[in-house]
Design a protein that fits this description.
By secondary structure, the chain is an alpha+beta fold. It contains 2 helices and 8 strands, in the order E-H-E-E-E-E-H-E-E-E.
């Protein structure tokens, strides 16, 4: 997620996995994905078109975390809240940007990030 995405479009998919090395071996062998490690708890993958992440944690019900990009993180959060979204992880910084997580009206967890 270090490169700027396109405003309001899906930009990244993040898998919570119990063993990053095992997941890298699986997806690398099955699909030919390549990987960049960012420490023991996060690894970026690319399939040649889309990037995503493998992060340590408990796999989430409902599958991987979909991450959208926003030019204006605070403005996007305000629009989501105005539409009834519940913010479940407040804005936090990480190497390359900032992000927050929200829950949509049906209970799906998504995230929004920005390099600003």
């Amino acid at each position: 997620m270090g490169q700027k995405g396109t405003d309001r479009q899906i930009d990244n998919i993040e898998f919570a996995v119990t063993d990053i090395a095992r997941s890298k071996a699986f997806y690398g062998a099955a699909f030919g994905w390549s990987f960049t490690d960012y420490g023991p708890q996060y690894c970026e993958f690319t399939d040649g078109r889309l990037t995503g992440g493998l992060t340590t944690g408990t796999p989430k019900p409902g599958g991987p975390l979909i991450i959208l990009y926003a030019d204006d993180l605070a403005g996007t959060q305000a629009r989501l809240e105005a539409q009834g979204a519940r913010i479940i992880v407040e804005i936090f910084s990480f190497p390359g940007g900032r992000r927050f997580h929200f829950q949509d009206p049906d209970g799906y967890e998504l995230a929004v990030w920005s390099d600003k």
